[in-house]
Amino acid sequence: MKLKITAITMLVSFLCSCGKNFTDLSPISQRNVSAFYQTSGDMITAINSAYKALQMNGTYNQSYWVMFETRSDNTDAGPDQTGLGADLAVIDNFVEVPATAELITSAYLDSYVGIGRCNIVLSRIDPIQMDERLKARIKGEALFLRSLFYYNLTVAFGNIPLILNEISVDEGKGYLQVPAAEVYKQLIADLKQSEEWLWKKSEYAAADAGRATKGSAAALLAKIYLTAGDKTSAVPVLRRIISDYGYILLPEYANIWGVANENNAESIFEVQFKGGGTSTGNAFTNVFSPLLRNSVGAYKNRPMPEMAGLYQAGDKRFAASMRTSYISTTGATIIAPFIVKYGTETKFNEGDADYNFIVLRYADVLLMLAEALGESDEAYNLINDVRFRAGLGKIDASTPGSFSDKLLRERRVELAFENHRWPDLLRFGKAKEIMQAQGKNPRLLFRIPQRELDINPQFKQNDI
């Protein structure tokens, strides 16, 4: 019987440029594949294809923000629940059906496409004659990107296939689900090696801005340690980022955002998008903002009404993160919240906006170190560094609430709409409690797409 193609066999790599500044290279599909993977230039093209997978609809362009923001208590599907809004609403309410949840299926498929592209690089690069330092860097990039895809998949789905080598279509059916703990163990080993091979941000040429760095690998490594429950191991990694890799908190929170501020000194890793008909623009800028939509109220990923009240008086992060009203096309003032971190001032063609998506930044590192240390003077000092930048006063042990609740609240407002909220709720053990308080019947894991269960009968569905 002819084998059906699943997520783990969709590994044919159509290679193209990664982002704003990476070299624009012809797709491998236009070349003789048998003559490819021969030179350092070929391997740069190959690794760029892995970055390209970060821009897919199933990853940072759409599915990840649906799964990690709309699923959480930060945002909902928006006022219009037809079309995409209807797809978001069922995910927001934990009632998606595995056979029809296209956004979830896309996340599964596209993440494995990215993983497959990384595996091609890692499987083919060693025999190539090229500068050894560049070879090591490319391998480090592949390990980081593969780990990032796997991190998102594991947080979302739990037990998943763990594929570490290039495979052909004929090999794809034999892979089984691996416990999440085993996946995290592999990612920890991979990210340690990635950090060793990668370069510091300051070592890259301007044309390579946006590539993975030592700081990228270390920040993701620390996040995975925390996710796996190993706070002790996260501490030295986070201290290394602070002491060795040159990141800072920008003086003004507002200056993190906007096309002119991309890849700034606070940014550790961001997905590169470029509008202007390059086929590398983002779709979310228009989707998030009613100011950029063709019809009133047609925007998505709308901040929940409670979000505005979480920001204390004078918190500079509020105006840089969201608004609570807008002027409609008829001139009426509409009271409704919307996100502004990803642009409001220009209407882009659909799927062609210029704004990057920040995945990891320095404020997250400081807050992760506070989490890893636990309640202590040092942990409060780290939280207060973030608060002071926002124009707020300090908190300490005498401030009402548990340390965990205070830290989780600070993460919520500092990192709002950046895909951290649902993973944070899971990691802090608060997902069920908080979502039940909203009248929902939450599950901690997304359901495996039905097509995967049909093709792999040994897979077990997520029911928790």
Molecular structure report:
Helix 1 (40-52) packs parallel to helix 5 and helix 2 packs across helix 4. It is globular, with a radius of gyration of 21 Å. A two-stranded antiparallel sheet has the order 1-5. The protein has a two-stranded antiparallel sheet with strand order 2-3. The relative contact order is 0.13. Mean pLDDT is 90; it is low at 1-31. The protein is 42% helix and 7% strand. The protein is mainly α and 464 residues long. A hairpin with a 5-residue loop joins strand 6 and strand 7. It has one domain: Serine Threonine Protein Phosphatase 5, Tetratricopeptide repeat (Alpha Horseshoe), CATH 1.25.40. The chain contains 17 helices and eight strands.
Summarize the structure in short.
The chain has 464 residues and is mostly helical.
Q: What descriptive keywords fit this protein?
A:
464 residues; mainly alpha; Serine Threonine Protein Phosphatase 5, Tetratricopeptide repeat; two-stranded antiparallel ribbon; 17 helices; disordered N terminus
